[in-house]
UniProtKB/TrEMBL annotation:
GO function term, MF aspect, one: oxysterol binding
InterPro entries membership: OSBP_sf, Oxysterol-bd, Oxysterol-bd_CS
Matches recorded under PANTHER family: OXYSTEROL-BINDING PROTEIN HOMOLOG 4-RELATED, OXYSTEROL-BINDING PROTEIN-RELATED
Family the UniProt entry places it in: Belongs to the OSBP family.
Name of the featured protein: 7308_t:CDS:1
Pfam families named in the record: Oxysterol_BP
Gene Ontology CC terms: cytosol; membrane
Length: 392
């Protein structure tokens, strides 16, 4: 069992007064076919947070992000990318379980919704900034850009989900759509990061939690890292485990292996020296707090301002009011789409053919290639000029 409270065997956490509604929701799930994104979730299972805010977890440890560019050896920079990527997982997939005791569903962002944040200098790493924008509503796609100018490191990516309920296994399977590309100002190589699949477990016990499954790949011009995720099975295993192996492109010989618990402690083995060191200690390292503009300084499309009244109703336990207000926002969104009144995107534009992505994806073993799963060729790319032109 993980020491951070992500035990899926916890006692039932659904309020007594809501168990009947929860049972009805599970019955709907069990007979539903297709992507469950379109299903309406009971308000007491909503987290009060927009999915778009999840981009902030990319900078839970901004010093790890900034450290990507520090090593002089390319293989060590690859290991630094792996360390940063693993450090984003706890916030993204397990931190809300600690807070709310169960994993709750975030709001589906509306088209054009924005989430902006920054992190002050921590341990000398310099300021880190984040731009997130909902670039597609059907299918739902969020674009994210993270940058640390002092370190000369940026990450540009887009993410989405395709969800399906597996009645026989009593779980929701989530395929993550999208990818992330890391750039450095002072080094030539790029890093393509593919995204793991998710499973939402513990539904029948009324204590949902997220487990990662399958593989992620970090692919650079000269090195590749295959990360395998696994969790506790029926009879054995440990929750939230990973094993990431660093190799030279075209070689089967491991150079480094990072393994352990992505929500706790992990180790790094150098296969050349046989030395093992601490890789990450998520439980023992405080996450950085994002700085977000006050509500008065936010525009109407920023997540905290957009969903404020619904989140407040959820926190106060007024789920009927939360459902009413949420329905009003969703209805206005449907009417805008029907009128063809699309809000211009402020931060991102679509590139039909992303040569950086395509060239790196070609280097990935066909078993793990993004294109095989998602048929992607392009990317949503942060465009500073687009933002500046919109606001001039």
């Amino acid at each position: 069992m993980s020491g951070n409270g992500t035990n899926g065997d916890a006692e039932i956490q659904v309020p007594e007064s809501k168990k009947s509604e929860f049972s009805g929701f599970l019955k709907t799930l069990s007979t539903f076919t297709g992507d469950i994104y379109s299903l309406t979730c009971p308000s007491f299972l909503l987290s009060g947070t927009s999915t778009l805010e999840y981009g902030q977890y990319w900078a839970d440890y901004p010093e790890y992000f900034a450290a990507i560019s520090e090593p002089t050896k390319e293989v060590e920079r690859a290991v630094a990318v792996l360390k940063w990527f693993i450090s984003t997982l706890y916030g993204s997939f397990a931190s809300r379980k600690d807070k709310d005791k169960i994993e709750k569903k975030p709001f589906n962002p509306i088209l054009g919704e924005q989430f902006l944040a920054r992190w002050e200098d921590r341990y000398g790493c310099g300021e880190t900034i984040l731009f997130s924008e909902q670039v597609s509503h059907h299918p739902p796609i969020s674009a994210v850009y993270l940058e640390n100018k002092k370190a000369g490191v940026s990450a540009n990516g887009h993410t989405g989900q395709k969800s399906q309920f597996r009645a026989t296994a009593a779980r929701i399977d989530v395929t993550q759509v999208g990818h992330v590309i890391v750039h450095m100002r002072d080094h030539p190589e790029k890093y393509l990061i593919t995204l793991p699949s998710l499973q939402i477990l513990g539904l029948w016990k009324g204590a949902p939690y997220v487990e990662l499954s399958g593989y992620s790949v970090i692919q650079s011009n000269n090195f590749n890292i295959v990360i395998e995720f696994s969790g506790k099975g029926w009879l054995s295993g440990e929750k939230h485990t990973f094993n990431g192996v660093v190799r030279k492109n075209g070689s089967k010989e491991p150079l480094y292996t990072a393994s352990g618990n992505w929500s706790g402690k992990s180790t790094l083995e150098n296969h050349l020296t046989q030395e093992k060191t601490i890789f990450l200690d998520i439980e023992g390292t405080k996450r950085a707090n994002p700085i977000i503009a006050s509500e008065d300084d936010q525009n109407p499309l920023e997540s905290r301002k957009l969903w404020k009244n619904i989140a407040q109703s959820i926190n106060e336990g007024d789920f009927a009011m939360a459902s009413k207000l949420k329905s009003e926002i969703e209805q206005r969104q449907r009417e805008k789409v029907k009128r063809g009144d699309n809000t211009p995107l402020q931060f991102f534009n679509w590139i039909d053919t992303d040569q950086v992505f395509l060239s790196l994806n070609e280097l990935i073993n066909s078993k793990y290639q993004v294109e095989d799963k998602y048929k992607e060729r392009g990317s949503w790319v942060y465009n500073k000029l687009l933002f500046e032109n919109h606001n001039n």
